[in-house]
Design a protein that fits this description.
heterodimer, A: 563 residues, alpha/beta, Aminopeptidase, 3 domains, eight-stranded mixed sheet, 14 helices, 39% helix, elongated, B: mainly alpha, 8 helices, globular, glycoprotein (chain A), signal (chain A), EF_Hand_1_Ca_BS (chain A), transmembrane (chain A), membrane (chain A)
Amino acid sequence: MMLSKNSGRGHRGLQESMYSVISLLFILVACVELCDAAAAIDVYRLIQYDMSGSAFGSRFAALNHHAASLHFPPGADLSRTVLIIPLRELNITFVRDYINQKKLLGGLLFLLPEIFNPGNGGNKQVHEREKLKNVLAELERLLIHANLPYPVYFAFENNEIDTVLADIKKNDATGQPATATTGGYKLVIPTPEPKKVASPTITNIQGWLSGLKADGDMNQLPTIAIVASYDTFGAAPALSMGSDSNGSGIVALLEIARLFSLLYSNPKTRGRYNLLFGLTSGGPYNYNGTQKWLRSFDQRLRESIDYAICLNSIGSWYNELWIHVSKPPDNAYIKQIFEGFLNVAEELDIKVGLKHKKINISNPRVAWEHEQFSRLRVTGATLSQIPVAPELLESTGGLFDSRQFVNETAITRGVKLVAESFARHIYGHQGKNVKIFADGGSLAVNPAYVQSWLDLLSRTPRVAPFLSKNDPFVMALKKELADHTDEVNLQHEILEGMFTFYDSTSATLNIYQVASVAFDLVLLLVLGSYLIVLFCFLVITTRGLDDLISLFRRPHSRKVKTA
Amino acid sequence: MTMFHFFNCAILTFGPHAVYYSATPLSEYDTLGTSVKAALVYLGTALVKLVCLATFLQVSENDGFDPYQEILKAFIGFIDVAGLYFALTQLTHRNISQNHKFQAVGLGWAFADSVLHRLAPLWVGARGLEFTWDYILQGLEANANLVLSISLAALVSLIWLRKNKPKTLIPIIYACAGIVATMPSITSYLRRELEWHFPKVIGFELFTSLVMAFVSWQLFSACQRPSA
């Protein structure tokens, strides 16, 4: 008796452990979720920002809708579909009308040609490139200033998405919009809701090259400043590389720093001027960073600056550059600077024009970087290929500003122009035809240096709110400037004012090919009838037809029996 | 509607087994125990086959068809036959007629095969958003497999359980048993060497399973006549 009881308890213990193992197995099995999408591609979200309280850009990030192409049947309800629009087939008026009429969409996905892909390149015919660039520029302008209550994403064309799009177009051509009951493709982006970027930082990098102080001279040496803003703003923050605006300016500044560090390393050739190099952030936001940087200066330092040259977009010009000033052209200082540039430009076969734009102190809009200098009574000018002052958030290095459209020779010529002009001012060679940075010499402009930095900049998105304090790129710039100057300082500030940014700039899109509910219902019917037929067949063959009929007659016969 | 699709594919894969059990006299004679024992024997056979494959087979770099490896796999496939023999003869069954014994054993065998080979991919794959025809084709393959298992069980029972067989039919019985036992090798040859697509292979399997079922039914009834 005792033995059987113990064995019984042992059995039960074994059974209980078996049950727990089985239940654990069930839990594990229920948690298995594999990704089995037809395609998974990287997508980049449209920027989301608030300016002075008004909302702009795409306000949502998560996506879970069916896909449709531009050939959707007219009159279809698109509030739960994602429109896939390749840039080549873009009709800008269609998009503009859609946005202006505030029609509701499930989402938008723009497919960009490979030439705008920073990691890639590809050379296409020139006319097609220019046309695509203009279309993209216009699209960006439209999207940045619109408020879109649905997710908008950019992706690059590749084989997978091209085949998917061709399939979608074929389905749309038959006239059936894709919904839950008709199958098709489903686009899913599982990201959480975008949150505000708290306290976005802007980092100004300054490098100081000291001039040669004569013995016994107590006065402060005069300073020449050269400044370029390094951050960008575009429709997709993860794709805003800004090769021309202002990658070209940064590269030129670094090369000029390198050349002058070579000159100043030898005390015999060190000039009697200090050189101040400034890489500022916050450019697109009315040069906020430059203002904070200047405000942090000592009053004496600010007064010692002879003049400041700001570089802005000098990468794709052919023979004409502009010097923009805010002081009137007949001002003595302005005349001196402009004539210095003009002399060098004539020798280098460049046309240089002078443009004057007055500052309105009450207007917070700062179109050029030199205006921040002028507001603090420092003579400044901006050298640029852009003839007219850009609007707010225009020419800030968007998606269309890619590496293909930048010309290294333009940058090298610009570097020669600025470096020679500086050298003549520093060493007092005005009017003399002396070429310090001549080609082939030890101080020649290094095209390989220009090219490698330009390539790096064309692969690095630089939207300021998404660059952290210790971002590797900022550290790289600091290190490079430290190589060429005596002293480098970083200044961290908070980007305040009218701009607020939201995160979630890139994601992975999963494309699933789904079958409709109708298909599964039909399948259920077919399977049900198959099983019933199989059942009847087996009953007939093994037991006989009478048994099959008796199966249906059984309740009736039972009633008869009991009665 | 992905759980829906999983449910559909599950009833396609496992439904016929349940239907077979309830439709034929197997349910009346309560042969569930036999089927369960046959399923366990299948499990054991599968483990033995795995060990043999791991020991004797070489892993080839290319995905091509190596005749020697395939012949070796076919030989290992005969372990299936041995397993069926064990299930039919060595296990103690209740008093069931031979007619029903092979059906019960074949049913349990096919059910275990479906569960082991098809349940996990079905659970993991058919519940996802992405739609493929694979799981429906897999269900059809399970159906073909059911028919093949029952025919194989019938032929094995003929070989070893029935004592008086007409002499002329014995080689045919062995030949049919050989064909059915080497079906997996044949399908893999078709898939790799001739590069047939999955639906075509499934169609071939269904067709041959019906043909073999018919042939084995004829053989079984022919052998039954003298003793009846």
